[in-house]
Design brief:
By secondary structure, the chain is of the alpha+beta class. The protein folds into 3 domains: 55 residues, no CATH class; 52 residues, Orthogonal Bundle (434 Repressor (Amino-terminal Domain)); 62 residues, no CATH class. 56% of the residues lie in helices and 12% in strands. The chain has 9 helices and 3 strands. It has a 3-stranded antiparallel sheet. Helix 2 runs parallel beside helix 5 and helix 3 packs across helix 4.
Length: 192
């Protein structure tokens, strides 16, 4: 015999097995979600239901599928493929470490915007390194040091400076420098 229902105090929570039916909120299309071979507990009086972890996970998977969102396994695979830690991926996405970890472990469902960002990371991880490079507070100082080091290494001959950006428009030189920094940062992230 099951335990007393904490909702109504009259019925007992009895184990159920079969097809579990759930009416999701309006933002999840497709009507009632049905999960076959499910197990849950249900009050004999008021109908209150208590779901186990497995059924809860299967309902979340069904909701993700209907919304077209990545599964936890897909999120983890993307992060591992580009060589980032959970913390680094969270930072790139602009979310907290714990939030990202919950998406990857299936304890929480990411929203559509974050799902789109994860997909963009999968397609073009280098763009985030470029953005990080642009946000560096000492960026101008590092560029000046780089240009100065070119003078020291190659001299100031027109040919040497042209080879290292001396004769190019400043906008082009800056763009090349940003790309170089982004590539270097991406490589550092992959190693670390």
């Amino acid at each position: 015999m099951g335990s007393v229902c904490l909702t109504c105090g009259r019925g007992t929570m009895e184990p159920k097995r079969g097809t579990f039916r759930f009416d999701p909120p309006p933002n999840i299309p497709g009507g009632t979600i049905e999960i076959e071979n499910a197990e849950w507990r249900e009050c004999t009086e008021c109908g209150e239901q208590i779901l186990g972890r497995e059924l809860d996970r299967r309902l979340d998977d069904a909701a993700r599928h209907r919304l077209g969102l990545l599964s936890p396994a897909e999120i983890k695979e993307i992060r591992e493929r580009i060589g980032l830690s959970q913390e680094a991926m969270a930072q790139w996405l602009g979310v907290g470490d714990k939030t990202y970890t919950r998406w990857e472990t299936g304890k929480s469902i990411q929203n559509k915007s974050n799902d789109t960002l994860i997909r963009l990371v999968a397609r073009n991880a280098g763009i985030f390194s470029e953005l990080d490079a642009e946000r560096e507070p000492d960026r101008s100082k590092r560029i000046a040091e780089y240009v100065h080091s070119l003078h020291d290494l190659k001299g100031e001959s027109p040919l040497a400076m042209a080879a290292h950006g001396g004769e190019l428009p400043e906008r082009v030189v800056e763009e090349l420098r940003q790309r170089l920094r982004a590539i270097l940062q991406f490589q550092r992230n992959r190693k670390g």
